[in-house]
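Practice problem: predict the structure.
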Amino acid sequence: MINIKKIRYLLLLICFLSAIKAQKSVQTIPNTENQIGIASGLFINYGNAGTEADGYFEFQTRSGLFIESSAVTQFSDLGTINTSIGFINEFSIDQFALAGYSNYFEVNGSVLNEIFLGYSSSAMTHVVFLGLAGEISPNYLGILNLNSFLPNVSFDSSLMGIISQDLNEFGYDLFLNITKTFLSGFSYGVSASNERYEAEESRTYNKNGNEKTFTIPVVRQGFFISMFVGWTF
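Answer:
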């Protein structure tokens, strides 16, 4: 099963990086303070974890305000909508600070409200999510831009990591993403990951001669690979 919450962080990271590109773009255009940058994309992913579709829309003002919305579905009862609003500020050449609020809604499931703080440069991006409810632990998302070490390759490559708590257990997820994007906006790529997923485990207890079997949710770690095609606008 695809972990929808992990895909959510993938989409958020795409939006953050897109917002940073938009910030650099609109700042090079003189005059008006309300000049905006707009980005959006649609993707279909297929792999050994299943098929899912996702997309995002985002805009940003010259002053650094950005609003983005993303959605994920597995063509079944699973689906999420995530909306974020925040600010990006270039405090030094190719170094950005970002902060904002994120709302995550899972169909027939949970709702999360978080604030996030982050830093991005040409080589690294770091984002920390802090839940507004006391029971939600901080989550960390980071990305290493492999193209900063391989500047002459014709595709985009990155290594992304997530550290978070699932079912009261801290763990990690790793993603290697390779993408080729054309001037028309068409893109395709592959993602290999070592990530957690939720499974079920049966346990039997014996008390005073009475035996009972319970099914409980557990966290497993597995290897996944998926291919995707999409279009960015």
